[in-house]
Amino acid sequence: MAQPFDICIRGAGIVGRTLALLLARDRLRVALVADPAHPHPADDVRAYALNTASITLLESLRCWPDAEHATAVQHMHVWGDKGGEVTFASSEQGAPALAWIVDVPALEARLGEAVRYQPMIEVVDAPVNAALTVVCEGKASATRAELGVEFDSMPYHQQAIATRLQCEKPHDQTARQWFANGEILAFLPLQGASGNSVAVVWSVQEDRAAALQGLSPEDFCKALQEASHGALGSLALDGPRAAWPLHKAQAKRWMGSWIGSKDQRAWVLAGDAAHTVHPLAGQGLNLGLGDAATLAQVLHGRDYWRSVGDARLLRQYERTRKTALLAVGGATDGLQQLFARGDATTQGLRNWGMQGFERSGWVKTWVARQAMGLETLGN
Fold first, then answer.
1. Beta bridge partners of 190
2. pLDDT of 198 strictly over 70
3. Rg (alpha carbons) of the chain, rounded to whole number
4. Which of 91, 147, 309, 322 is deepest in the core (most CB within 10 A)?
């Protein structure tokens, strides 16, 4: 007779697989639900900016991609729309990198390989009964809706357009970001230290997103070259274009029990099923991996007689992660709202603020270390 599962994880993305591996290290039997009808696309153009805390977590699982697929960011340059500029350098923080830009397919492949060789994890195609179910299905989670959990969502009325570019000039391990006319454009370095490829995330108004998507590859690259002020020379598309709507969202409850369950089965939310933030600060996946790390830590430290579905443990997880989200979500939402306004007075104030922040010394250092995951941020 097969042994019962301790935990069922619904969602086999990066957060779900990472959590499964963390729990399996504690000899917990995990059912990882993967949807065979929606495999991960091979031509996924997304890239994530991961901080030191996330890197340490993934390295502990031996799931960190090789250098070709994980590029260290040693410099960051941010431009406002009226002369404001902010720069960061890893050397100023005494760290090897401000962040690492990671190819999504490469990271998913490493996690998938680790899952296949972990005997405590079984990949299944449908949910199973377990003392605890962790919902990692993403922002459109069907399980969250089934549980009746309210998901407060505030649309930004923007879409993020993502793609890859080959650039005339090398990226020099620099992440570049431009705030202009309510839009946010980011060039994130790829293909290692000497690469000249970048991942693009361009947050624009919904009607403009449709227009940009309709451009020919050549005209789209011209629009990008103009928006980036020719920083990397001529540009050529190196992948398809993808787009998705942007929201700030948070579930009202992150834990509970199944209604009508006789054996007191519990559930928690993690990753985008619990929260989403604007991509301008690149903290979305860092928050999700922080969820996984915190939940695994809470369950690891439980008294021997407590179930993994114990409400006290799950409330501790919820409180810790909501605190982390409050800091990150508030900061990213504030920046988005600030740069979305196009009146001259606001433009002047925010660019004056950028210049003051650039000269702020310890304040700038503290913000950089928070974003890098070198200070406690609820993880």
1. 197
2. yes
3. 21
4. 309
